[in-house]
Design brief:
- The chain has 15 helices and 20 strands.
- It is an alpha/beta fold.
- Among the domains are: 2-38 and 209-284 and 391-438, FAD/NAD(P)-binding domain, CATH 3.50.50; 102-196, Guanine Nucleotide Dissociation Inhibitor, domain 1, CATH 1.10.405.10.
- The chain has a 7-stranded mixed sheet with strand order 7-6-16-17-18-15-19. The chain has a 5-stranded parallel sheet with strand order 9-2-1-13-20.
- Strand 11 and strand 12 (249-252) form a beta hairpin.
- The radius of gyration is 22 Å and the shape is globular.
- The protein starts with a strand and ends with a helix.
Length: 439
């Protein structure tokens, strides 16, 4: 079989490797000048060989596909990892950096409010018996019509609890609470429950950076990989499919669209995609993340993840387990905050982040270097990762995963582990097996 795979991110690299192993003739095309998609390690302009991830960053202890890939390529995880909680190690509020104990002392009843919120989500997740099919929940339509903002209102969250849950939505889903379906959150919760099996979950960075993985995978596919080749059109006939790019036309039996759905909205399909699939491709929500990393000459800050009421939203140190006297602080902004920063030029974003980081930790050291990447400004991505908005799980979940052979979709947006590196790999494996089975 001849297969064209569009997009050399983790989904496309995985699909290509599995299709080749099954004996298919594969052409992998990538519109950019690098592989990895939304996994991108930045080394320049940092000093002391330090680095930070401008996109995807974490591999969880239950992400078995990613762990197997890392092991295959001789890569390891860094440090003891992070164990996430709603109340992070620090909260910067009212000009003070508060510990969890001080946070709770400042707002009696905070834990009870947050527990009420979590109980609503847990109850919804309990009704999902198969995380790959959340639309089969007995109350799917009602849950899908509700947002995380509705849950916050039901739980009667106070001001501080609302801030924490808003930062959770902006961080985990890269969207505002009103933009996230409760059924989608329940699906994510159920999937983690099933994958982790009750074990403790920690999130780790990759030693040497994630680009080391994607570059190693691409090196094994160098003979079929073409860079700087944009998809223009997909034309079907009874003889198969013709994939037209900015450089050439390729005849194939199948095409795998292993890229963000956003750039596909400008691709010409002949005949057009089925109406429901067309609607899903054009309307599925995409979160907005702007990541801003600033390197300083020392590390004059307390260790640990911080939540802030300021524009930087969340601040942490990606160099925590890296050598060197210098250190990098990262601002992770999602939702409205990510969109607001994306409208500003990069130097202005860096200045905002540095100023708030200095104020948060009480130091005046001038920054040495940095970068700021707004994924919503990147035309080949159009956002950070998929977020199913209210009404979209019941409308789009199944149709996106069924696709319309000989046109197939891959990427985190069609995975059970949506929004994660693990999901990208999952989708690549599944689409390859389905194509081989289809013949």
């Amino acid at each position: 079989m001849r297969v064209v795979v569009v997009g050399a991110g983790l989904a496309g690299l995985t699909a290509t490797a599995h299709l080749r192993a099954a004996g298919c003739e594969v052409a992998l095309i990538e519109g950019g000048r690098r592989v990895g998609g939304r996994a991108r390690t930045v080394r320049s302009p940092f000093h002391e060989r330090q680095y930070a991830e401008s996109g995807a960053e974490w591999v969880d202890t239950h992400h078995h596909r990613m762990l197997a890939l890392l092991d295959r390529h001789g890569l390891t995880l860094l440090g003891e990892g992070e164990q996430w909680g709603v109340i992070r190690r620090w909260l910067h509020r009212g000009g003070r950096l508060l510990s969890p104990t001080e946070v709770r002392e400042s707002t009696p009843g905070l834990d009870a409010e947050l527990a009420e919120f979590e109980a609503v989500v847990d109850a919804a997740a309990a009704g999902i018996t198969d995380a790959s099919r959340p639309e089969e929940h007995s109350d799917a339509v009602a849950l899908d019509s509700r947002s995380l903002a509705d849950v916050a209102e039901q739980a009667q969250l106070g001001e501080l609890a609302q801030l924490f849950k808003r930062r959770d939505a902006q961080g985990e889903f890269a969207a505002e609470p009103a933009e996230v379906s409760l059924l989608f959150v329940a699906q994510q919760r159920a999937n983690q429950r099933d994958m982790a099996g009750g074990a403790e979950v920690r999130a780790h960075r990759v030693a040497g950076g994630l680009s080391a993985l994607t570059e190693a995978m691409a090196a094994e596919l160098a003979d079929v990989l073409s860079m700087g080749e944009m998809l223009v059109a997909v034309e079907q006939s009874d003889r198969g499919v013709v994939v037209r790019t900015s450089n050439r036309s390729l005849d194939a039996d199948h095409v795998v669209l292993a890229c963000s759905l956003v750039p596909l909205r400008a691709v010409r399909f002949e005949p057009g995609l089925p109406p429901r699939l067309h609607c899903a491709v054009h309307e599925l929500g995409y979160g907005t993340v702007t990541k801003t990393a600033v390197q300083f000459p020392g590390r004059p800050w307390v260790r640990g993840y911080a939540t802030t009421e300021g524009r930087v939203q969340r601040v942490y140190e990606p160099t925590l387990d890296q050598a060197g006297q210098r250190g990098i602080l990262m601002s992770y902004c999602g939702g409205d905050g990510g969109r607001e920063l994306a409208r500003r030029p990069e130097p202005e974003r860096l200045a905002i982040a540095a100023e708030e980081m200095q104020a948060m930790h009480g130091f005046t050291d001038a920054p040495l270097a940095g970068f700021s990447r707004a994924w919503s400004n990147e035309p080949r991505y159009g956002g950070s990762y998929a977020v199913y908005e209210p009404g979209q799980v019941t409308a789009f979940w199944r149709v996106l995963r069924e696709a319309a052979p000989p046109v197939w979709l891959a990427g985190e947006h069609v995975a059970t582990c949506t929004g994660y590196l693990e999901g990208a790999v999952e989708s690549g494996e599944i689409v390859a097996s389905r194509i081989v089975a289809a013949g």
